[in-house]
Amino acid sequence: MSEPFLKIDVRGDRELARAIERAGAAFRPEVVHNGLLAGGMLVANDAKAMAPYRTGTLRRSIHLESTEDPLTVKVGTNVPYAAAQEYGASISPKRAKVLHFWIGKPGTGTEVFTKGPVHIPAHPYMRPSIEKNQQRVRDEVRRVILLQLQAAVR
């Protein structure tokens, strides 16, 4: 299993520890999971805003998902070219003799035929979103967990 981009450590937070202790049996993994979902939404929304835009498919594909582990949520995309946009790539023809693509809008931009390779520069959107939002995510996770625990002990 790969290491997470962002790991949240809430140990040492006295207010949160007291709320967990007061909540006792009401403290369930879904309490933490809801906090993680709220924090993950910050990353997903910012990544959508930073993602390169041509048709909007990449931005629309960025999503937040739960996992079987209630202490883990994932922010990602299933678009095949997402990693090439994030990290950059070199593309060469595999089954054809040349690559065929448009620079600009198909039909009105410049049509290109090349034997390649074509270098796609990196346009990071996911990693900067994670880096930029680390403290906001921690604060949001903590806020949502505390709200749920305070509601449970009332």
Number of strands: 6
Radius of gyration: 21 Å
Instruction: Return residue spans where pLDDT drops below 50 for at least 5 consecutive residues.
Output: none
User: For the terminal residues, how far apart are their CA atoms?
Assistant: 40 Å
List keywords for this structure.
154 residues; alpha+beta; two-stranded antiparallel sheet; elongated
Structural features, described:
This protein has 154 residues and is of the alpha+beta class. The chain has five helices and six strands, in the order H-H-H-E-E-H-E-E-E-E-H. The protein has a domain of 105 residues. 45% of the residues lie in helices and 16% in strands. Strands 1-2 form a two-stranded antiparallel sheet. The chain has a two-stranded antiparallel ribbon with strand order 3-6. Helix 2 packs antiparallel against helix 5. The protein is elongated, with a radius of gyration of 21 Å. The chain starts with 13 loop residues before the first helix and ends with a helix. The mean pLDDT is 85.
Short description:
This protein has 154 residues and is an alpha+beta fold. The chain has helices spanning 14-23, 29-50, 57-61, 82-87, 126-152; strands at residues 63-66, 73-76, 89-91, 99-103, 110-114, 118-120.
Give me the secondary-structure topology:
Elements: H1 14-23, H2 29-50, H3 57-61, E1 63-66, E2 73-76, H4 82-87, E3 89-91, E4 99-103, E5 110-114, E6 118-120, H5 126-152
Antiparallel strand pairs: 1-2, 3-6, 4-5
Helix pairs in contact: 1-5, 2-5
